Amino acid sequence: PASSQDLNVIECVWAHLRVRLNKSAPTGIEGRAAFIDRLRRAVRSLNADGSSTLQALCRSMPERCRAVLYRKGGRTGY
């Protein structure tokens, strides 16, 4: 399907960002300014060292398409 999350690379980018945010999650209550700062650092980190990750996600598209076709539009492991 055209709206398949498996075929939408940005969904994987959001997942990588969530992982980075979870690694730096506070143990207590976090204020708005602290969260925004943590989010900015996570995005900067993904931009700085994530280019190879982003390129790999894009290069995996033919394999993703095959997996979605094999599953007849169903969810895959991506």
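(ticket continues) Second input and output from the same batch:
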Amino acid sequence: MSFTNWLRNIRSALARGQMERNHPRRPPGRTRTTRRLCLEPLEDRMLLSYTFTPIADTSLGSPYSGLVVGQAINDHGQVALVAVLKSGGQAIYRTEDDGRLTTIAQTDGLIRNFYLSPYMNDSGTVSFGANLTDGRQAVFTGRGEALTRIADTEPSSPFATIPLPAQRMDQDGVVYFRATLRSGPTGFFAGDGGPTRTVYVTGGQFSAFPSSYAHQVNGDGGSFRAKLTGGPDGVLFGDGLQTDTLVTAGGTYSSFFGAECNDDGTVAISANLAAGGQVLLVASDGTLTPFVDT
């Protein structure tokens, strides 16, 4: 039934109800009580229509035997994806406006496989993490030509490991990643192909970082989860120079398991409640607002 027909039926029922109130029909010996109908206002709604564009598949004639979980999309609708090739190995692709797929990187004598999901900015630059054939790890960026090595764990590097979760990147092509130094501490670091910069590192204010650094795409800061030295877990926002603590565990919240930010500096925080259940919080302008909970 269409919305128009449904509304017409409701209006007819309302009209009948009004007539019965004005001219009640009471059979002999019975008293009839008419239930009043009311039309409650509905929230504004619209029917959504979707257009699906095939990007890649694993059909019989396809060169792909599998599509690895971990795609990226930018504000222009370009998608970066990882595919397993029937010919062997893996490749990272970027979609183009004409439907073509541009090869960003492929397993070869240098790269054994991809272990950090791709991330892409609006210029079409794709960042990703790879296990190398020499047993080391590296983070790269690429646009379909020569790759730029951001950081690695080669013997001459200060980094011992570059663990999950995946790296982030801003519109300028600066990549933000989590790594463990050979000297012991773990931290968030940034680089674009030159010397890397330390954003935050354990050993001072922080004793551990359990997740990635969610850097703004257009901006200088990011949100992250950290264990405060000698204190509770917390969710913070900062650029490495100025840092704001948004919320800490204890009291209402027992722990946190997610933190994402947008370019306006609003942070979405997933938290476990001390009383049980979970809640999604929104931190903005110094105010912490519960958005939805269990």
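Agent notes: Residues 31 and 89 are 81 Å apart (CA to CA). The longest strand covers residues 64-73. Closing as not reproducible unless the customer responds.
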